[in-house]
Amino acid sequence: MRQDTRLSRLLHVLLHMAQTDAPMTSQQIALTLGSNAVVVRRIMAGLRDGGYVESERGHGGGWRITRRTDEITVLDVYRSLGSPDLFAFGFSNPKPHCLVEQSVNAAVEDTIRSATTSILEQFGALRLSQIEAEVRDRMPSRAMRCADH
């Protein structure tokens, strides 16, 4: 099963954007993510709609972060992606007649609901500035740069 990496990738990009005043083009972001500019524009649109980034067309244009990292939570970024499912589990029959399957579905559904609530609460409490501080702790004498870009 393929994992959805959009959340971690957007957090990565936002933290790089926060370190520069220069805009980042969709192509630059795509190179950073190993993706393509069309995909970048699609996922950045949710951040733009939420007021976390802005884009400018033309020469010298690109994407800029519009809020400080202490004003953006991981939950904000997650919601900008359309709040995708956190878990890939599903039911073979969502409305079964079998009492055993009804009980299994109820137990799994309750557990997933509880886990989802917990994760979203943690996402809401985690600010980009906290991740940024951890990056600084890891690389105290270097700029926030990745080995591959």
How is this structure best described in words?
It holds the Pfam family Rrf2. It comes from Cereibacter changlensis. InterPro entries: Tscrpt_reg_Rrf2, WH-like_DNA-bd_sf, WH_DNA-bd_sf. This is DNA-binding IscR family transcriptional regulator. Keywords: DNA-binding. By secondary structure, the protein is mainly alpha-helical. The chain has one domain (6-138): Winged helix-like DNA-binding domain superfamily/Winged helix DNA-binding domain (Arc Repressor Mutant, subunit A). 52% of the residues lie in helices and 5% in strands. It is built from six helices and two strands, in the order αααββααα. Strands 1-2 form a two-stranded antiparallel ribbon. The protein is elongated, with a radius of gyration of 19 Å. The mean pLDDT is 90.
**How many strand elements?**
2
Largest sheet features: 2 strands, antiparallel
Computed CA radius of gyration, to the nearest angstrom: 19 Å
- Estimate the strand proportion: 5-15%
Q: Given this structure, which CATH class is correct?
A: Mainly Alpha
Shape: elongated
Instruction: Provide the domain count.
Output: 1
